[in-house]
Amino acid sequence: MWEIGASDIFRFWQTCQDLGYDHVTRVAQNRNVLIEEEEEQEDPTAHHLKTLARSLPAQGVMVMTVAAERGRPSGKHLVHISWSQVEILPPTDGTALRQ
Asked: How would you classify residue 51: left for phi > 0, otherwise alpha for psi between -120 and 50, otherwise beta?
């Protein structure tokens, strides 16, 4: 089952996992991730979610129309779609349900 969450909260993700839900979440934080294939990385930010997502090859493309907002004009934008399975590491501030 797929759930779309509007939350970038690690505890929310843990609860989804505990309930057996897969989920897609729009993220705000450039979280630390564990990558299966550890390779020698020159870029120290390569193990951060947004950095990794931006480096993935496009699996598809689509054109999106973005509405005008806050003084920004509307427009059409080419969006590259990519994906990868990653393990998001728990926050180090102790807010995770379990470590």
From this structure: alpha
